[in-house]
Specification:
mainly beta, about 0% helix, binds FE2/S2 (inorganic) cluster
Length: about 120
């Protein structure tokens, strides 16, 4: 469970119905000039940066496996979309963001002290 007070919450869609996913089940949105991927897995929404931590490939063009890993389209590294960890190795961490569906929309949380880490 995350500490919700540590995040600034940004409304990114009016409702779940407004989220457009590609054929690979991954959608994108713009927030603070960054591209963020959003996807649904096991009934929950997850968000993560579009830029692969290995060499910057667009993860929105990757695919999800049955375990909830995003597979990078460039070198096939796998990252867990829940915690950002690599599936079968260490070394790179995928930046992830909490996503919440509320009665008034879909929100993405950005850590308050982490704003500069976006740069
Ligand atoms: S750029 Fe994603 S695994 Fe290399």
């Amino acid at each position: 469970m995350i500490n919700r007070k540590k995040y600034n919450w940004h409304k990114v869609f009016d409702s779940e119905a407004g989220i457009k996913l590609g054929e690979n089940g991954i959608g994108t949105l713009q927030l603070n000039d960054k591209t963020i991927c959003i996807t649904k897995f096991d009934g929950e929404w997850y968000a993560f940066t579009n830029s692969c931590p290995h060499a910057g490939a667009p993860l929105s063009e990757g695919c999800l496996d049955a375990k909830g890993n995003i597979i990078c389209p460039f070198h096939n590294y796998k990252f867990n979309i829940k915690n950002g960890r690599m599936a079968n190795a260490d070394g790179y961490i995928l930046k992830t963001y909490p996503a919440e569906v509320r009665p008034d929309g879909v929100f993405i949380g950005i850590k308050k002290e982490g704003l500069l880490s976006w740069l």
